[in-house]
Design brief:
Two copies of one chain form a homodimer.
Chain A (H helix, E strand, L loop, with lengths): L15 H8 L3 H8 L7 H14 L5 H8 L4 E6 L3 H6 L1 H14 L5 E6 L5 H12 L2 E4 L8 H8 L2 E3 L13 E3 L2 H14 L5 E5 L5 H16 L7 E3 L4 H13 L6 E4 L2 H13 L9 E5 L3 H4 L6 E4 L2 H16 L7 E3 L3 E3 L7
Parallel strand pairs in A: 1-2, 1-3, 3-4, 5-11, 6-7, 6-8, 8-9, 9-10
Antiparallel strand pairs in A: 10-12
The structure holds a DNA duplex (16 and 16 nucleotides).
InterPro entries (chains A, B): HTH_LacI (IPR000843), LacI/GalR-like_sensor (IPR046335), Lambda_DNA-bd_dom_sf (IPR010982), Peripla_BP_I (IPR028082)
Protein name (chains A, B): LacI family transcriptional regulator
Pfam family, one (chains A, B): LacI
Chain lengths: 344, 344
DNA sequence: CTGAAAGCGCTTACAG
DNA sequence: CTGAAAGCGCTTACAG
């Protein structure tokens, strides 16, 4: 048992003024050194930095933010159905990338849950200078109301907001048509003739576009499109869609599944029904995460570089905050990763 | 194309002073109303609230924080290996619970990635008043160095820090021995005689304790402990451990797997080898998430109430910030959820 | 119950 | 290149 040090005893926290005193300069000058102003002598810089190191000074954010009229904070908007959101490794990976990039900047990433019964409250919080910018990922939150907000606050979307597309809107995403096409083309190249698909939700542009990529590619190869069933990005939804695909009369020797989570459910159904992968059915999917690497066989997939997407979103919002002009669309590259599920 | 409204034109943000002017009071009084001071007339309260609503006033955090010498911010510490961290749905769920609870308070949750090459920097950031408290989840970050930090900053752990256990340390977790025992007892009650286990990493107390719960329960039932293989909480690790279990000579008719992620890998191996679940081997695991619900059959599991754990951690750190005295150990309840993998 | 005043810890024109 | 002064938007003793 150690003697209790009551936490009430506020610990000693050095201030700028103390740094300045120790370095023998004014706090104005100390501040300039800290902020990298060019108009300071090398000598002064050295003395101030010494003082900072000596007492372990760290700038107080509240003071700095108040003076700068900035918050150095970017909000990651989370829809109120947080459980669904965090359960999807895709979102977790975007957050990871964004947090990682943030840690290399002066900005910090705050998780902000939107109130669904009072969306106005959330908007007001954002609009009233409590954050410098926001990142919006989920379909639900990408509601049109953010369109106006984007006029006064730097906002970067990870999905295409459904409604208006003004030139103040900035979206970071993969080319979803290309995602569907890349996965499907690989199946074509493997000589498959009857290529089915399990799509994402068709009320989202990403869902529709990956499906379009699949269809375009199949048609371009001179083949008939195989079965097409809609899923919801969950393993269960993928399993059900695969069930419908198998129950339909049309036979197929390959399937492009629009997400790895759906693929994991679908693969389980295939195996339960005695369908061999890839001998009977080759499987290609999208997302390079635990769901594509931990099934047996491992799944060929379109790597969406999801963490990079998060980092790019963060970088973009920081540039917007700094006043840069950015294009509406920023594309994240994709890659095909070949695994056993489409082996020859 | 709409005409560009340059974002440089700073939008109009109302201040306390303006609220006060509109309500015909001083900003002191307006502030008191906002902070719920009892020493204000009902009339005044009404007038100020009207003014607030009218112009949509939201307090500026920087100003408030500077005056209060608080930050209203709690940091969720993330180890630098962010990818592994976010890939685990367990951590994502804790974060979700914490963020959810935070949104019901005045605190915001910030994701803070620790610098591994310069841990001092992270500590200094925390110690220098940039956050009011911190939440620490991962094993790596629960290094002893946080012990001292906890003396000056309210910190709540989600795992037992390996080293010292002073009375300033606060841990929110399930009873891990009970987790192992609850899952295993269910297998015993199902009449299984040869119960094996796949453990978590044995260099963590949670890994060792769940194993102990398994062993205690098996022995208490008058049975011999079955095979015991160590995993790493990943599907691949679970698959490998199951491979070793099957390759060993000892037959088993049940297995307790210490996490659902490992179970998903292990179950795939069982099925690939033609082992029927639950007919040949009953499977019980821990974590009630997509990994226990999306395999076929669905898995009986110990629900760890992981989101609740995150919420409890957040609630605890807020109480510490408010000066409360808390015990070292706070337990999150657990529950058994029966599913097909242990059906009779 | 209410207001004037000081102060929280910074930054940044403004002089020099 | 450097410093004194004002100000960022709040809160809170201190008087009254």
């Amino acid at each position: 048992m150690t003697i209790e040090t009551p936490r009430g005893t506020t610990p000693w926290i050095p201030t700028l003024e103390e740094v300045a005193a120790l370095a023998g300069v004014s706090s104005s000058t100390a501040s300039r050194v800290i902020n990298g102003s060019p108009r300071v002598t090398e000598q002064t810089v050295a003395r101030v930095n010494e003082a900072i190191a000596k007492i372990g000074y760290v700038p107080n954010r509240a003071g700095r933010n108040l003076a700068r009229r900035r918050t150095q904070t970017v909000a990651m908007m989370i829809p109120e159905r947080t459980a669904d959101f965090f359960a999807d490794p895709y979102f977790a990976e975007v957050i990871q990338g964004a947090a990682m990039h943030a840690s290399s900047t002066e900005y910090s990433l705050t998780l902000l849950i939107e109130s669904e019964q009072d969306p106005h409250k959330t908007h007001q919080f954002l609009r009233r200078g409590n954050v410098d910018g926001a990142l919006i990922l989920s379909h639900h939150s990408a509601s049109s109301s953010y369109g106006e907000l984007a006029r006064t606050l730097p906002i970067v979307f990870g999905v295409h907001p459904p409604g208006a597309v003004g030139d103040q809107i900035h979206v970071v995403d993969v080319d979803n048509v290309a995602v569907g096409a890349l996965g499907t083309r690989h199946l074509v190249e493997r000589g498959r003739q009857h290529i089915a698909t399990i799509t994402g939700p068709l009320d989202t542009s990403a869902g529709r576009e990956r499906m379009q990529g699949w269809r375009d590619t199949v048609l371009a190869a001179g083949l008939e499109p195989g079965g097409c069933e809609e899923g919801d990005y969950t393993p269960t939804g993928g399993a059900q869609a695969m069930g419908r695909l198998l129950d339909a009369e049309a036979p197929f020797d390959a399937v492009f599944i629009a997400s790895a989570q759906m693929a994991s459910g679908a693969v389980a159904v295939l195996k339960d029904r005695g369908v061999r992968i890839p001998a009977d059915v080759a499987v290609a999917t999208a997302d390079n995460n635990v769901f594509s690497t931990s099934s047996s066989p491992q799944l060929t997939t379109v790597d969406l570089h999801t963490a990079e997407k998060g980092a790019t979103m963060m970088a973009a919002v920081v540039r917007l905050i700094d006043g840069a002009q950015l294009g509406t669309e920023m594309l994240v590259p994709i890659d095909l990763i070949e695994r056993a599920s489409t082996a020859l």
